Amino acid sequence: MLRTCLAFPNRGRFGEEKDATQGPADELMYDPLIVIVLSVQMLMKCPPTSALGWVKVFRTNIVSLFVRCLSSKDSNIREAALYQIARYSECIQQSDMQENPQVLYVFRLLENVMHPPANARDPPRRLPTYASLILLHALHAIFRPSNFIYPRTARFLLQRPNSTSSDEWKKERGWIVRILGDGMASAEDWKVLRRRHTWDLVASLFQSSERDKVLRAGILEILANLTSNSQACTSLVLKSSLLIWIEIALGHEAGSETIAWLRILENIVFLADVSKLGRATGGEWCVIICSCISSLLQTSGDKDMSILNQSALVIVRLSLVPGISHHFLGVVLEHAVEYLKQLEPSINLRNCLTPRQDSRPLSTPPHQIRSGCGVKSRRGSGGSA
């Protein structure tokens, strides 16, 4: 259930007919619509009658999922989830559950951040993903006090900031990075990050963590999700010099990060406002991307067909950009051909001509990454929802 909260699927809509084969892309995730229906039935017909029963319900993370639903793009899902949270709040007030005060405090905080709509008949406004994530993690930790994050979220929600000196600082830092990656789902979430200059802080952390592969992967996840939003992508390139930063970061061998970097570059080419970038940089942004692709192809250690395939996709999209310099594009193609020559001895044409049963088509941008769920691509014009 927690996995569903972190990689929340935005495809489902109330009242929408869908094929029986459709559902969450990950087999370990639940369909939020089904969970809402099951919860309604449970509260109507057989609600828990003891404190232990309520604890078991909360430990399933079903209420945490309802908090996450408040960031859904579908107004009907938000309305149904808010009604369920209100019902749980009403029910547990009559129970003697030990965690009651903490749960009700989280519910009051949630009520305070939910701005009422202008018209009472309108559905509840969408809650920024970062707000719903921190609250659902806090709710999750209340019923798992042994979790290392429990005292941190409790102090944060009580507005009692503290600096940690424990040996778990690296684990806490990784958790914060995952929160930042999971929360970037819309233009509203980008506004939260932009207001706090979050990317500038994360970028400096990336540069000082060359040996921490897990942290670097988490930061690349944040960047992939940022560049999956058209507004955030364009803003980062123009105002935060993102492409120059990427070019500097690729000064060292990318290694296992090569595919992630190529997908981020493809996001930029596919989603950024090309006309705005062209006017602001005079086409220089295309030159930098060409340089980045060349650098990745030249410094890639182990030659891999997937790297060549991903590079080809970026090059094709780049060639369609109006006014791109043919000279720099030609240099990239030369490096791609050289990469293919080095790869040729290891290519078995017989295997290549026979499609594998477990083979998957190349993903299309925008490329997003969610914690524990790998790369996820979604079709559309760029998620500036």
TrEMBL record:
<feature type="region of interest" description="Disordered">
    <location>
        <begin position="357"/>
        <end position="385"/>
    </location>
</feature>
<dbReference type="InterPro" id="IPR039844">
    <property type="entry name" value="URB1"/>
</dbReference>
<dbReference type="Pfam" id="PF16201">
    <property type="entry name" value="NopRA1"/>
</dbReference>
<feature type="compositionally biased region" description="Polar residues">
    <location>
        <begin position="357"/>
        <end position="366"/>
    </location>
</feature>
<dbReference type="InterPro" id="IPR016024">
    <property type="entry name" value="ARM-type_fold"/>
</dbReference>
<feature type="domain" description="URB1 C-terminal">
    <location>
        <begin position="64"/>
        <end position="245"/>
    </location>
</feature>
<dbReference type="GO" id="GO:0000463">
    <property type="term" value="P:maturation of LSU-rRNA from tricistronic rRNA transcript (SSU-rRNA, 5.8S rRNA, LSU-rRNA)"/>
</dbReference>
<dbReference type="GO" id="GO:0000466">
    <property type="term" value="P:maturation of 5.8S rRNA from tricistronic rRNA transcript (SSU-rRNA, 5.8S rRNA, LSU-rRNA)"/>
</dbReference>
<dbReference type="InterPro" id="IPR032436">
    <property type="entry name" value="URB1_C"/>
</dbReference>
<protein>
    <recommendedName>
        <fullName>URB1 C-terminal domain-containing protein</fullName>
    </recommendedName>
</protein>
<dbReference type="GO" id="GO:0005730">
    <property type="term" value="C:nucleolus"/>
</dbReference>
<dbReference type="InterPro" id="IPR011989">
    <property type="entry name" value="ARM-like"/>
</dbReference>
